[in-house]
Specification:
Number of strands: 13
Pfam family, one: AnmK
GO biological process, one term: peptidoglycan turnover
CATH class of the largest domain: Alpha Beta
Protein name: Anhydro-N-acetylmuramic acid kinase
Shape: globular
Keywords: Kinase, Transferase
Organism: Mycobacterium conspicuum
Strand order of the largest sheet: 9-8-7-10-11
Distance between the termini: 30 Å
Number of helices: 11
CATH topology of the largest domain: Nucleotidyltransferase, domain 5
Amino acid sequence: MDGLDAAVAAVEWDGDNVAMAPLRHIERPWPDEVRARLHASLGPTTAGELCELDQLIGQTSAALAAELLPADLVVSHGQTIYHWVQGGEAKGTLQLGQPAWIVEATGLPVISDVRARDIAAGGHGAPLAGVLDGLWLQGEHTRAALNLGGIANVTLVRRGCPPLAFDTGPANCLLDEAARRTTGQPCDENGRLAARGTPDAALLQRLLDDPYYALAPPKSTGREHFRLGVLPDLAPEDLLATLTELTAITVADALAPYAPDEVVASGGGVRNPVLLAALERRLPLTVSDDHGLPAQAKEAYLMALLGFLAWHQVPLLTGPHVLGRISPGDAPLTLPPPAAPPTGLRIRTA
């Protein structure tokens, strides 16, 4: 909700595996007006506001994609505005960012709307990271990939079992909301405020009583569920310390039944040393940089992988369904023959 991440990668088949070489990634904050409108759109809004945001996000995405050229294909996740879950069943999801602007700026085919087909097939359309993690982290030991975005999601990779991916609850979304509402800043940079605070036991317990945590995986959630509401009567330092503990406890509790030998963290949350330390006290934590994928850009590289697999018509997630929709570029559209799902992912250094 605070900016755009983009990456370019060289991706190719390597026998039955996919080989990916991360080449470059960049991050750009949203303009202040766009960021404010995005956060406002999480509450009551209008069709006109959503239409305008769809175009603004598409235009900003197009400029970022053009900055990363040359490329052959673009995949755009878009900005999640709403993830509709009812009775434990995902009913729909909405990502804004009109892909036509990217096509117009780059002349390339664009794959977008990568979650909808899985939801239509009875899946959750989330988290998508399991596609990459299951191929990347397979081996003899039980390993978990942890993404600390607005929402925290994990993928369990176990020998002899299909990957299990689900959202654990908030990662940065409540922390960022608390920082924004108490200090006017978009985040608690480097966890400085939280480091000076003391968790409030009563508030922490109330937050832990949220029924989402008791649901069995697979499950998904979003910012529309985890909002602060009326701010408690606490100093900003203590509020942020409490929310940091909330993220660390709920992630650790979600992983506890599986006792992973290693938890590989990525996402914006790894920039927060206070949050990282709270997780390290509870989990055998490493970061994805140690394994060849930049922690700050892992989701962007995930999108590159999903685009490559969609282009090759590889079925993913729930049943034999190809994710995403294709907007043709300036050249005639010619897809390669359909391919079977890969057996692994190899990260190469460029």
